[in-house]
């Protein structure tokens, strides 16, 4: 869980640095068909952090499920970890 949180922090810092109030991508945003540079920055920010936010939500669900059904929680954790292994390949 701590490793996933560290990945989230890295992703969040990257998103803040590159997409919060950044005016450098105005031409790119226009070329890609965004209505504004602000819209482009918002979408790219969310795109950057969504994967780690989803992983943290999945882990939270597993922790809540554990007290009610440890075997199911164990299986979901194994699935989550196997997906992480596939992502690193």
What does this structure look like?
The chain is mainly α and 89 residues long. It has one domain. It contains four helices and no strands. The protein has helices spanning 2-19, 26-31, 37-66, 70-87. α1 (2-19) runs antiparallel to α3. The chain is elongated. The two termini are 20 Å apart. The model has no long low-confidence stretch (mean pLDDT 89).
Tally of contiguous helical segments: 4
Largest sheet: none
**Strand-and-helix sequence, N→C?**
HHHH
Beta fraction: under 5%
CA-CA gap between termini: 20 Å
Number of domains: 1
Unreliable stretches? none
* Quantity of strands, as a count: 0
Global shape? elongated
Over all CA atoms, what is the radius of gyration? 17 Å
What is the average per-residue confidence, as pLDDT, rounded to a whole number? 89
Amount of helix: over 70%
Class from helix and strand fractions:
mainly alpha
Question: How are the elements arranged and paired?
Answer:
Elements: H1 2-19, H2 26-31, H3 37-66, H4 70-87
Helix pairs in contact: 1-3, 3-4
Which features characterize this protein?
mainly alpha, 81% helix, 4 helices, elongated, 89 residues
Care to give the gist of this entry?
This protein is an all-alpha fold and 89 residues long.
